[in-house]
Design brief:
Length: 276
Amino acid sequence: MTKVAVNRVRRQAALALGLATAVGALLAAPSPAHAEAAAPPKPTIVLVHGAFADASSWKGVITKLKRDGYPVLATANPLRGLTGDAAYLTSVLKNVKGPVVLVGHSYGGAVISKAAVGNSSVKALVYVAAFLPDKGESALALSNKYPGSTLGPNTQQWTYQLPGGGTAVELTIKQDKFREQFAADVPARKAAAMAASQRPVAVAALEEKATDAAWKTIPAWSLIATGDKNIPPAAQRWMSRRAHASTVEVAASHAVSVSQPGKTAEIIDKAARATR
């Protein structure tokens, strides 16, 4: 074999070896689809509003969570009674696939504490200026455990018809007192709209005692609003310590999810990351 022929054979062999190496590396490397499938899914964030608010109070928080890739559901809270409100939330959770981080504001904290009991899909509880009741405790009793709440004299009573007959009493915050009481750090025009669209809460819901507490078995996070005039910050701290919740304090009114959506989304994100 001539020298030229030998060199040609060597070049062909080197080319074949290089192609084989490249193909092997390509086959060994995970495909983008495989890599994506291997990543754990982000939990769905389920947001539960409290009394004197509605699901739109989470708007700023939703925007930030969705920007970070979280599926989000802000559900309606009936505000009629703790047992019925929790049962409704339980039915909502049955339609959510995969892991859940359950977030409650104000009275919504009592609702998530009851609804999450025994639900293995709920991986974390986040309380935003919220109640963390134990068995036998009501929202009303906890709000009066420490001084500082000015809610009582700033509410208005309304009578409504019960489905089975008779009447009951519900509360709203007086519109001219709403901003000072509920949303002192929210722009005046926005606070006025919140006052006009607030959802009334049945007195029975605030008086009903909890029968269990999901925070005893599910990790909890708590955001304490230091300017809260509905639930005294001292009560929020006491409940959070008892639940061994990972806690942050924010200089904000009771409407912290509206005035500080970034801080609110941040603690929810921390809870969600801890579940993955």
